What does this fold into?
Amino acid sequence: MGTESGYQGWENYETWLIALWLSNEEGIYRRWQERADELLEGQDGDAEAAKGELAEELAQSFDEEADEMIPTGTVFSDLIHAALGEVEWLEVAQDVMGDRLAAPK
It folds into this structure.
């Protein structure tokens, strides 16, 4: 689905899909924005460090949710984790952080 030229302005289809679902679920999106603010504060305003931490937390959260919803050791679990492995989590984190990345350190 995704190509080397990307998908809808994103790195690939999987990244676009995660970002789309996050932005369409207002409560979840706000929760991740609040987490971005917490990480920025914890990193003394270092937006790049906070973005990296946010990306790791997003990836871990989606992996854990997939494990809760789909029994491990099945073709469906393998497919979901393969797709999640294609997500460019830094790009998703950057989208969640938005203008926070442009703020001065």
About this structure: The mean pLDDT is 91.
